[in-house]
Q: What sequence folds into this?
């Protein structure tokens, strides 16, 4: 619920801090005192459109801060988590509006968009007035309200799950059809490409091996010359092998005389001789395998160029050709098997659609039953509100298949007819300003137990009525206040007398400026204010007695 409202420099309000209680709070005051300014200020904090005209004359900016205490599982917390913002209470919405029309929004002191403020505001407060288009005056909310009234949460989940399954099956079928159509278009190309790749039979790593082989054969003559020269240096009469053997003989003759001092050198010479001999064997082996046939070089080049040409044509690397062949062959196989696969997918999509329709029809039947109950309940509320000739009707009608969705196959609209014989139509187009507020009051009384919105605001709900009708309005507002927080701007003493909290809006003229303020009233002050509302400027004893009777009157049994 709304616990506090801090307003700074909004129109005639200089500085105002208000605390609100649970239950019914009434705001009264003389015409022009500034009651509408309070609603405009609250609207700013809830994301309503900002106008620089709301900034008090001479001030650089206006600001409004609204503080809410909400339940642990309130939907507003889910919105905060969705926005990756800390979901904590109290929830504080703040709006700053500058004199040049710029606007900034904050949620729990974190910068936010005005759109987010509006989303949160729609979950926290409903404002019902002549020109409001939010809450139940927005037809988009009617289906949700009816489902809540009908207790359809489980059916809604079942329908949403079935819709997701149907859409998934339908998407798989559509994709398979598109793939098959594209594959048939490309069939000739696919068959030619697979045959070409089968004939080429590429292997991973083949390009590197061919490139190395080609380079070796192209330089075979120079490599052979170098190896021959190296063999001469190693094994010739004056080669390394001969020199190492001579060195070993020379040292061997004096080894007995030198003792162990020459052993390391002789061992090193023996190792060098063995390595030189190994080098000779390796060079001779390479020389025997070195390919110098021009035909072999041409064959390797042709193979390498063929692989690269095919890879370039398909836009892949040579090493990817083998995998490409498998992919293209798979697409061909899909063409050959597409008939059977499409039949299976079509059956799955049909079954999923039937499952969705069954769930949605069950939900629709529940909606129609709930519509009958809500029409009867709202209809019972209308006569005491001087709407006895009016009729409330909930229209539940089928949507075209293109508009079926997770919430089912129905369009829901709350409609009214204010005169006998008149066809029901949208509430905000058929009802006048005063009627509109009373219609909203009747509907909210019926929906109060299932509404997720904890705070209701009514403006001019008593417009154009008095006496018993105003008393009926006050009773219903008080009943709403038993389960919700209700704020009502009223000119009716019968309504004001039902308030658990009474705030009087006053306009005070100073030497330099006129300001609007709000005064909380105690019991004695409440009686005087209600007496003023009954009698006018001169408050009589009779008016005070009448005020006492209104304040102590019990609620009717209904």
A:
């Amino acid at each position: 619920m709304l616990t506090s409202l801090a307003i700074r420099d909004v129109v005639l309000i200089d500085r105002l801090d208000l605390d609100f209680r649970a239950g019914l709070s009434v705001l009264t005051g003389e015409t022009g005192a500034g009651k509408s300014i309070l609603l405009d200020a609250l609207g700013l904090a809830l994301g309503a459109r900002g106008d620089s005209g709301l900034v008090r004359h001479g001030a650089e900016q206006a600001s409004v801060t609204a503080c809410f205490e909400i339940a642990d599982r309130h939907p507003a917390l889910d919105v905060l988590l969705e926005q990756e913002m800390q979901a904590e209470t109290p929830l504080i919405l703040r709006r700053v509006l500058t004199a040049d029309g710029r606007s900034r929004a904050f949620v729990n002191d974190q910068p936010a968009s005005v759109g987010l403020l509006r989303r949160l505001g729609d979950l926290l407060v409903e404002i019902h007035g002549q020109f409001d288009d939010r809450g139940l005056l927005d037809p988009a909310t009617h289906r949700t309200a009816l489902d809540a009234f009908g207790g359809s949460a489980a059916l809604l989940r079942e329908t949403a799950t079935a819709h997701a399954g149907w859409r998934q099956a339908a998407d798989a079928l559509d994709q398979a059809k598109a793939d098959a159509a594209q594959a048939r278009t490309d069939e000739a190309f696919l068959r030619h490409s697979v045959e070409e790749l089968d004939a080429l039979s590429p292997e991973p790593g083949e390009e590197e091996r061919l490139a190395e082989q080609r380079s070796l054969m192209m330089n075979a003559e120079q490599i052979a010359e170098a190896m021959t020269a190296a063999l001469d240096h190693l094994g010739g009469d004056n080669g390394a092998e001969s020199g190492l053997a001579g060195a070993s003989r020379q040292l061997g003759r004096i080894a007995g005389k030198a003792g162990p001092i020459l052993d390391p050198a002789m061992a090193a010479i023996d190792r060098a001789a063995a390595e030189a001999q190994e080098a000779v064997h390796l060079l001779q082996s390479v020389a025997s395998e070195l390919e110098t046939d021009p035909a072999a070089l041409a064959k390797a080049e042709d193979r390498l160029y063929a692989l690269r040409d095919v890879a370039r044509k398909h836009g892949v690397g040579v090493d990817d050709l083998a995998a490409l062949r498998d992919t293209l062959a798979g697409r061909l196989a899909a063409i050959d098997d597409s008939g059977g696969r499409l039949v299976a997918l079509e059956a799955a999509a049909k079954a999923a659609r039937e499952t969705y329709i069954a769930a949605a029809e069950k939900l629709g039947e529940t909606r129609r039953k709930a519509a009958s109950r809500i029409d009867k309940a709202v209809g019972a509320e209308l006569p005491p509100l001087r709407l006895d000739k009016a009729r409330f009707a909930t229209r539940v009608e089928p949507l075209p298949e293109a508009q079926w969705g997770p919430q089912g196959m129905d369009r829901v609209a709350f409609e009214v007819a204010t005169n006998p014989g008149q066809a029901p139509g949208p509430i905000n187009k058929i009802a006048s300003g005063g009627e509109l507020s009373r219609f909203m009051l009747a509907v909210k009384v019926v929906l109060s137990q299932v509404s997720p919105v904890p705070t209701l605001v009514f403006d001019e709900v008593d417009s154009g009525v008095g006496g018993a009708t105003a008393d009926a309005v006050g009773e219903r507002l008080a009943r709403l206040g038993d389960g919700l927080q209700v704020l009502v701007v009223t000119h009716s003493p019968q309504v004001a007398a039902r308030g658990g909290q009474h705030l009087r809006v006053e306009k005070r003229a100073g030497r330099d400026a006129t300001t609007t303020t709000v005064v909380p009233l105690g019991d004695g002050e409440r009686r005087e204010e209600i007496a003023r509302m009954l009698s006018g400027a001169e408050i009589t004893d009779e008016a005070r007695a009448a005020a006492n009777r209104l304040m102590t009157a019990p609620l009717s049994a209904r």
Q: What stands out?
A: The radius of gyration is 45 Å. The mean pLDDT is 84. The first helix runs from residue 35 to 45.
